[in-house]
Amino acid sequence: MAASGPPLDEIQWKGDAAIMEEFGPYGIHSNTVLFYFKYSPFYDHTSNNEVLFQQGLVNRDMAQFLSTRELFEGRLNTMSGLEFRVAQEPAESTPGKGTGVWVINKQTRQKRQGQEDEITVHSTYFIVGTNVYMAPTMFDIISGRVANIATKVSTMLPLVDAVQTWSPARGRTYIAPIPQDKDKDKPGAKQGPDSTAATTTKNPATSHSANLTSPDGTDEIPDSLILESFFIHEQYGGEYMDENPITGKPGEFVLSSTGRKDPKLPAKPAATAALPALNTKAATQDNTAGTGAGGKTATGKETKSPKVAGMPKPKRRKSKMAVTPS
Fold this sequence. Notes:
By secondary structure, the protein is an alpha+beta fold. Strand 3 (92-94) and strand 4 (97-98) form a beta hairpin. The protein is built from ten helices and eleven strands.
């Protein structure tokens, strides 16, 4: 039958006055810490510790193992099964004074022939002063941290949702909270016209969101505007619209809303004037004087009479050499 009540890792146990009287004026120390833990709800009465306690009460030969913790734990080392033993003693914070924190393990010891004992730790407990606690498991620590993160996130999401709105026409808009004047709440703060003016100043984000409301003062957008915006997007979704569209053809652009033409660029400078023509008539006449028909230069052979077809070729006379008298 399961024990009723809160889980063991969520409770704190402390011995009452009757229990503390058994330990005398010295209280909890190295030889009494396991006896004090015996009264806590974390103790298991089927463990080897309980077997040694009962044997020491009825058997004088076994009573010696109850005198010191070293003898008691030495006897536990010879037994197999469930046991409670001190895993860590209080650390010394100052000379002659410890922290008062004892660490106790609940473990199972199994004997192995020719080898060291196999130890399996089930849980850990710690004693702070006279208070006894059960250490949480790693699963409990991680699940607790995850639950804490989930709680913080679930608390933050409504706050974020409260400062933003969304509509098909405007998209998502955020309203910045109005900063509060911390000096106003302080006693002795001056209340002048400057502070009043600063308080009455509108928040830019709030005023901008107020200008986006519909003409009737509500934030609801009519369905006709949503449909019209959708049709415009379907028809001109791939184009860009300007507040002052430009019409016309290249070189003659006109701003449609004002009728004003785009200022023209300054005219290009005129081409460089051609060099003056030189008078070369005299040279031409001189050249033509020595030029024959067809624009060819005369060589003297043009004065010969033209040849007639069928006319015999004249014989060339040979000149005789003159003979000088001897």
